[in-house]
Amino acid sequence: MEIKKNIAEIKKSIPENVILVAVSKTKPIADLQEAYDGGQRVFGENKVQEMAEKFDALPKDIQWHMIGHLQSNKVKYMAHFVNLIHGIDKLKTLQEINKQAKKHDRVISCLLQAKIAKEESKFGLSFEEIEHILKSPDFQELENIKIVGFMGMASFSDNQEQLNEEFASLKNFFELHKKNTSTNNCQLEILSMGMSGDYPLAIKNGSTMIRLGSSIFGSRNYSS
Ligand SMILES: *Cc1c(COP(=O)(O)O)cnc(C)c1O
């Protein structure tokens, strides 16, 4: 019952236009089912195989988001059902997604992951690298993927000023390109920022999609 209650409370506290992704990585099917029974339809996972197993076991009106760092050789295991891929940081990965999506006659929506955290270890593209991809002919010829927005992860820090700065920088970059970028396979609508520890601040900075795990399902036994 906790899971349902958590979802209801979070939904009440966020604006209606903000999409809640329930990050269910490492959690058992029963937990996802409880969230589903509470009305949740968007789930995020960070391992392709785990997501595919859960897809097979659960109702088919769920939207599955891949939020983890993606290896190209795994794309084929989710190309038939994944709804949104958040963490793209290479043109090569987009090309592989395009190839696999084509086999299923689908167009798969993707977010480019921007590096906004000051920490060294984070995945993601610089703003310059994102611009370079969006302008490149190799990207523009891809017909079975669509870039629908950007995703960012702020630093693991309590420094609100720093987090605010990181979120705001991506919001500004997003708005600039929302106006000025138009190709057949790029239409920016989604800004995915905010996790359990920082989502209120992310929403203040214009996030339209938050990815919450522990605040819905409780803490995970191992971090991933
Ligand atoms: C695990 C994870 C989350 C959720 O983290 P919580 O702190 O449990 O809310 C969000 N985004 C990504 C990319 C993740 O890997």
Automatic annotation (TrEMBL):
Keywords: Pyridoxal phosphate. Its cofactor is pyridoxal 5'-phosphate. InterPro entries: Ala_racemase_N, PLP-binding_barrel, PyrdxlP_homeostasis. Residues 3-220 form the Alanine racemase N-terminal domain. The modification N6-(pyridoxal phosphate)lysine is found at K25. GO terms for molecular function: pyridoxal phosphate binding. It comes from the Bacteria. SUPFAM superfamilies: PLP-binding barrel (SSF51419). Pyridoxal 5'-phosphate (PLP)-binding protein, which is involved in PLP homeostasis. Belongs to the pyridoxal phosphate-binding protein YggS/PROSC family. NCBIfam families: YggS family pyridoxal phosphate-dependent enzyme. This is Pyridoxal phosphate homeostasis protein.
